[in-house]
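Example 4.3 (complexes with small molecules)
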Amino acid sequence: MATKSIAELFDLSGKGAIVTGAGMGIGRAIAYRLSEAGASVMIADIDVDAANKTVDKIKARGGKAHAILANTRNIADAEKVAKAAVEIFGSLDILVNNAGIYPLSPAIDTTEELWDRTLDINLKGLFFFCQAAAREMIRAERGGKIINIASIDAVHPMGEVSHYNASKGGVLSLTKALALEWGPHKIHVNAVAPGSVWTPGTEKTRVAREAKGQGVEDLLNKFMGRMPLGRPGAPDDIAKVVLFFASEASDYVTGAMLVVDGGYLLT
Ligand SMILES: NC(=O)c1ccc[n+]([C@@H]2O[C@H](COP(=O)([O-])OP(=O)(O)OC[C@H]3O[C@@H](n4cnc5c(N)ncnc54)[C@H](O)[C@@H]3O)[C@@H](O)[C@H]2O)c1
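Answer. The structure with nicotinamide-adenine-dinucleotide bound is encoded below.
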């Protein structure tokens, strides 16, 4: 017999959340949805002006948010952000590891610098943000929800992003490993794997390809041809699924990766 209504299951009032890379794109949409559900949201981004814009928008809608400068490549920032969330919001209950980069580079040309930057931001930083959050969650004995933004690239190579594929494959693997270790503390660790979502980051990729004289039409057509739902994703398509993992509606799910790709991987 269900004991909570649907509204109660998705109510995040009184919860403290962190979203990395929430200054724009998918992260911003996630911050909006968590805030709409009642959470106080720490907007952690390397671009503090963008983070402040997200905060202003949330506050204008009556929500609670705070901007903090953080580079997920800097391990010390993980502890700084987790402690700030506890200090400012009173608790840390939800962490969304969203910050990530996806610069194109054929494997044959990929430099050590690009490999290290991609793996540091997308995987190493994500691990230490998980660790810092879990330490606070274990100390507070309230459990928690960690949601890692992976990618369909975790399981399906797209070409010219082998370094990115490796980082996102690592995110999937880490999600399972941490879910196993932290389940006894009631810390849920799940992943969301977006397909193609139009964001400032993908726009940057388009511009970079065009600068090299390579259009994006061929890529887009290839993508759309494999899209059973007939449209690319919007940031909010991802945010709604993150909300499910952040809420009590997913209380018996851990170590899972939910693909949100309009059916791309089916074809
Ligand atoms: N857009 C897509 O099609 C797509 C598909 C699959 C997965 N993803 C994943 O979703 C996540 C968000 O992607 P997006 O398209 O919204 O990106 P985006 O480039 O539009 O936005 C990324 C945000 O993260 C911030 N950021 C970048 N590096 C950072 C760092 N080192 N520390 C802190 N903040 C940092 C940026 O300032 C920006 O606000 C990434 O992890 C990406 O790999 C995106």
